[in-house]
Amino acid sequence: MEKQLQGLIGDSRYKGGFQSDMDKYEAGKILGISSSSSLKRVRDVHKKLMFQNHPDRGGSPYIAAKINEAKDYLEKQSTNK
User: Fold this and answer.
1) CATH code assigned at 45
2) Would 54 be classed as within a structural domain?
3) What is the per-residue pLDDT across 14-61, written as a single tens digit (0 to 9) for each?
4) Whole-angstrom Cα distance, residue 61 to residue 55?
């Protein structure tokens, strides 16, 4: 049943762990946006994800750190253009 359902709805989740060094592709995947998104979009998505995943609200400290790292990476890339 599960395989049938999976075939019907697909499984678009990323199947892999984190890279040792953050890159533009991974930062976009973590935030769920295009890596060329505007700085405002990056910050808005970051805020929403941190609200949902903050350790003080029961989220994982590691995931929260990766979300912050992704935002910082894309902000830095945006200012270096």
Assistant:
1) 1.10.287.110
2) yes
3) 566 666 789 999 999 999 999 889 999 999 999 999 999 999 999 999
4) 5
What gap in Å lies between CA 32 and CA 71, rounded to an integer?
Answer: 11
Estimate the share of the chain in helix, then strand, then coil, as percent rounded to the nearest 5: 65, 0, 35
pLDDT at 20: 75
Note whether residue 4 is domain-resident: no
Sign of CA dihedral 79, 19, 56, 42: positive
**22: nearest Cα among 64, 72, 59, 63:** 72
Q: Range of 71's domain?
A: 21-79
The answer as to whether 58 is a domain residue is yes
Looking at the structure of the chain, the number of domains it has is: 1
**How many Cβ atoms from other residues are within 10 Å of residue 46's Cβ?**
20
